């Protein structure tokens, strides 16, 4: 029995007890999705979509040459958590970098503009942080650890300093720089790995994080090693969780003749390790995984993006879908699934998209706007957007459109999340 099978059996039993009454409206004649922890109306809308556009539906009979397809974001949509961010945590905590100090220095400075971080990105005593100082500390810590023999102890003060400043730098760059910069910055930390080594590292990280509790912890610079930037602290989310509802949906779509693709802002090879592995329940074809692509000089991950391919984030996802999928299928996606503002463009851009499924993370911004549309359409039989709730304390879906934020117990339909 696979990990997913065990989770599906548990989720199915719990859902039978927890599922609320289903709103009355026309549903597909033959259910194709187990209730699990689906919001009942959301599941019915998707079943209707599959019944209409699958191989036995009227749309397929009328348009046999135009095979429909669905596009899924990966992190926090197909799984709970972010497999690339947890890979950063795994790599940093064990000093598993595959590049020498001079390449690390180049990788962590490339494309990042000179700036002084502000707002929440200050030292613990409130001082502003210059990226130049932060970068100098990162390089010093990495060089010191690289000069040693063997793996540093988990409580090594230099290691703790390095990992705290790495996640601080990533969060600050992600919040204050262009999204393309942050997407490639975190990927460059894996430079030097060949394909098999990177896949092994990603598998080890996935397995370890699937066994950890979902929660938050704070990584803080040791007081004895302030460096030039000072003592900084950042919260990180722990753990990953499979989403059996998504795995079953993808299988149902493919069984109905609706092809399934992933379009992620993470490195394509990292996502593929997870998404193509049948032991996790997804088992998608490798060719159907789209993500950030990099150059591989000499067979090893390099520092520069692949030519003529967008960074698959926000409008870059739209460009990638147009280039790789619209040309192949002659139309936009039928169904798009996402969770964040990074997915809002692909959820809303294509005229052919009949339904957008939003994992409700109670987020503001463009995804909050689309979520508000889903809420306004909750009484419609054919909505453009639907919501699916999740309990962020467990990483599991809820049989409702409402979600429970991390650290809270009460569900809510929309943000903002209480402090």
Explain what you see.
This protein has two domains: 3-80 and 243-397, Rossmann fold, CATH 3.40.50; 83-238, de novo design (two linked rop proteins), CATH 1.20.1440.320. It is of the alpha/beta class and 419 residues long. The chain has helices spanning 3-18, 40-53, 58-62, 83-94, 101-109, 131-146, 157-176, 179-188, 195-210, 244-255, 268-275, 315-329, 344-348, 366-376, and strands at 69-72, 79-80, 116-122, 128-130, 215-220, 233-238, 241-242, 259-267, 289-292, 335-338, 355-359, 385-388, 390-391, 396-397. The chain has a six-stranded parallel β-sheet with strand order 9-8-1-10-11-12, sandwiched between helices. Strands 2-7 form a two-stranded antiparallel ribbon. The two termini are 41 Å apart. α13 links the parallel β10 (335-338) and β11. Helix content is 40%, strand content 14%. Its cofactor is Mg(2+). Keywords: Amino-acid biosynthesis, Hydrolase, Magnesium, Metal-binding, Serine biosynthesis, Signal.
Give a nutshell description of this structure.
The chain has helices spanning 3-18, 40-53, 58-62, 83-94, 101-109, 131-146, 157-176, 179-188, 195-210, 244-255, 268-275, 315-329, 344-348, 366-376; strands at residues 69-72, 79-80, 116-122, 128-130, 215-220, 233-238, 241-242, 259-267, 289-292, 335-338, 355-359, 385-388, 390-391, 396-397.
């Amino acid at each position: 029995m696979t990990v997913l099978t065990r989770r599906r059996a548990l989720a199915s039993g719990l859902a039978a007890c927890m599922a609320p009454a289903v709103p009355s409206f026309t549903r597909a004649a033959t259910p194709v999705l187990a209730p699990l922890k689906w919001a009942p109306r959301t599941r019915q809308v998707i079943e209707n979509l599959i019944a209409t556009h699958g191989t036995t539906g009227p749309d397929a009979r009328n348009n046999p040459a135009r095979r429909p397809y669905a596009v899924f974001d990966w992190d926090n949509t197909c799984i709970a958590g972010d497999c690339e961010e947890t890979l950063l945590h795994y790599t940093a905590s064990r000093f598993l970098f595959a590049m020498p100090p001079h390449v690390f220095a180049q990788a962590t400075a490339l494309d990042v503009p000179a700036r002084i971080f502000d707002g929440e990105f200050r030292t613990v005593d409130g001082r502003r942080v210059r990226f130049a100082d932060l970068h100098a500390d990162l390089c010093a810590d990495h060089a010191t650890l690289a000069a040693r023999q063997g793996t540093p102890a988990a409580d090594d003060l230099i290691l703790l300093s390095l990992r705290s400043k790495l996640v601080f730098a990533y969060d600050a760059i992600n919040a204050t720089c262009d999204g393309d910069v942050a997407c490639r910055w975190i990927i460059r930390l894996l430079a030097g790995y060949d394909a098999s080594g990177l896949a092994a590292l990603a598998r080890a990280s996935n397995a370890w994080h699937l066994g950890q509790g979902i929660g938050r912890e704070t990584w803080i610079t040791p007081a004895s090693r302030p460096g030039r930037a000072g003592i900084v602290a950042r919260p990180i989310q722990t753990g990953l969780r499979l989403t059996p509802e998504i795995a079953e949906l993808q299988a149902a779509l493919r069984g109905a003749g609706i092809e399934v693709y992933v379009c992620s802002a993470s490195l394509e090879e990292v996502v593929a390790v997870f998404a193509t592995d049948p032991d996790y329940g997804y088992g998608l074809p490798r060719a159907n995984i789209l993500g950030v692509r990099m150059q591989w000089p000499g067979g090893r991950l390099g520092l520069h993006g692949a030519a003529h391919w967008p960074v698959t984030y926000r409008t870059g996802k739209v460009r990638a879908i147009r280039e790789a999928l619209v040309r192949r299928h002659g139309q936009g996606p039928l169904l798009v699934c996402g969770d964040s503002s990074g997915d809002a463009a692909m959820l809303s851009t294509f005229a052919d998209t009949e339904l957008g499924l939003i994992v409700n993370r109670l987020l503001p911004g463009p995804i909050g706007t689309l979520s508000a549309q889903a809420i306004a359409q909750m009484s419609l039989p054919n909505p453009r957007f639907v919501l699916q709730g999740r309990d962020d304390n467990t990483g599991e879906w809820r049989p409702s459109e409402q979600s429970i934020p991390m650290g809270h117990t009460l569900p809510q339909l929309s943000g903002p999340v209480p402090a």
